[in-house]
Amino acid sequence: MKKKVNKPILVAGVGISFILWFYTSFSQQILEVGEWGLLSAVSLGLGIFLWRQEQKETTNKPLSITRLTEQSVRDVILQGELILNTLGTEKPDRDISVFKQQLTQLSLGFDRQELTIALAGDKKVGKTTLKKILLAQYLSNELSFIEIESVFKETKIPEIKADLILLLITGDLTNSHWRFLQKCNQDHQRFILVFNKKDQYIPEERALILEQVRQQLKSMIAPSDVIATSAAPQALKVRQHEENGTIREWTESQPPDINLLSDRLNLVLELERKMLVLGSLWREAVSLKQQAKANLDSIRHDCALPIIEKYQWIAAAGAFANPVAALDLLAMVAISSQLVIDLGVIYKQKLSFSQGKALSVTIGKLIVKLGLVELSTQTIGSFLKNNAITYIAGGTVQAISAAYLTRLAGLSLVEYFQDQDLNLSAIEEIDLTQFPQKIRQVFEKNKRTTLVQNFIQQALPHLSN
Ligand SMILES: Nc1nc2c(ncn2[C@@H]2O[C@H](COP(=O)(O)OP(=O)(O)O)[C@@H](O)[C@H]2O)c(=O)[nH]1
Ligand SMILES: [Mg+2]
Hints:
Layout: E1 4-5, H1 8-11, H2 13-33, H3 35-60, H4 70-90, H5 97-107, E2 115-121, H6 127-137, E3 143-149, E4 164-169, H7 175-186, E5 190-195, H8 203-216, E6 226-228, E7 236-241, E8 247-252, H9 259-271, H10 273-321, H11 327-334, H12 337-346, H13 353-369, H14 372-386, H15 396-418, E9 429-430, H16 435-446, H17 449-463
Parallel strand pairs: 1-9, 2-3, 2-4, 4-5, 5-6
Antiparallel strand pairs: 7-8
Helix pairs in contact: 2-3, 3-14, 4-5, 4-10, 5-10, 10-12, 10-15, 11-13, 11-15, 12-13, 12-15, 14-15, 15-16, 15-17
């Protein structure tokens, strides 16, 4: 099987030339600012480049209104099983029986009849009140209702175990509601928007809010899924003028007005029952698959680290012995093809030597283009100088830089391989478009002063003999 190695540099061209421009125009000033100034400049360049990529992605991406099929859910379950089996082979002593059982359980859930409906929303919007009414209306043991309070205050949106969500609002849709609903939409989580306490508005205002919310949500749900209710309308004050001239006043409580919601609910339960269950199964399957994958990733990561370390010290020794190493050479040393191939073995990405070499050259060029060679050399150089480490033999800076870059490249490769499909037969070519982003992530994680300092401390003993 032949694999084609794509060069990502062309794809990322615009962003990289921007960084290079930024770097060459400002490096003079930045160098005077100090070692971390340059670091921030490159981060900024990378940041802008990736931010622009992300912007493009979110605006182009259509909202996922595509419907789930039973097959697509079964596919996720199968992928989960594949990961579990791989896990079982690579780490036989890990107990995966609970995982397996949960996945098997999912496969039995396609015909589930019981449904859970969650009432979500901020405090005091009428969740408990509405729940009581619905409970009385749907006296079936096939339906259960749960209440979810204030899920929108938290930064991370919690998983809600429900087949259908009724999101209650009492006015305009806020940003956090919007984020929550987008997440629902991505997760195939069906929801209905309930505009409760409609009695608090005059009819014109009410119509305006409804219209606006329908407009905002039109890419996700039908207009008829945005419904105004009054779960507990305010009591009306009645005033009567008696014939004898006195005025009698009393309050009259109003019955709940949720008929439109009940009608919609009945229809959804009748027509979409299967889809509601599929949505829940899909979310559970994805979650299980991700847990299994995280397990596998951490096992492989543990195997990958010693290999990266081995090559980083080999790279250091090479650069130390060859202190005149040019930037190009540094980058080459930094990502030996053998490291690429060895890591590929751990991640079951079988690469021939020439493929490994091509990949390592590509990564090397990318590291150079991103300015990471100059960056690490300068950072490490000034650290050694500022800390009066006197035995700076000619190649010390290059050696530590080579080791540092090797580590960066190795860790980026690990992240990259982790994202690849487990199903080997499906891989036709190596797509490196995501690679610049991986390097950035790893770089961001490893650029902190203390981490670099620790690294230098670790590296020095390797150079003393
Ligand atoms: N005016 C008006 N008040 C309502 C309506 N629904 C609920 N309420 C009142 O809002 C308050 C909070 O209701 P509750 O159900 O406890 O809200 P929760 O915190 O979301 O569970 C209570 O005093 C309810 O009587 C409504 O449709 N109109
Ligand atoms: Mg409540």
